[in-house]
Request: fold
Amino acid sequence: MASIAELAEEIKTDKIKNEDLIVCLEAKNLRVVAMAMFKLIERNYCDLRIVERLAELGELITDNKFIGPWQFGHVAIATLSLIDNEDAKIKFNELVDGLSNNDKFLVDNFIKSETYKA
Reply:
């Protein structure tokens, strides 16, 4: 099994296997987690474990600053929306329904900003 640092390098060089992206989503290093989320969007890859992990990360709505106005949870929830997967879409809708109007705005704003493409 590769280390998190090795997996992060594989994400950067686009050599990571799709199956290893779930390992990155479970890393303690939020930078690696963010890189994995963006790679999932880029590859449009998802499975049930990924949906469940993104839902867990979606709870990080306060005190988990990511970039600009967004918290880490906003990005995780947006990732569910940006992946073309039925389970992800269902979970996205469930999570968005429970958000405040401000958090809904921030999730929507992240999706429209296309920051994940940078």
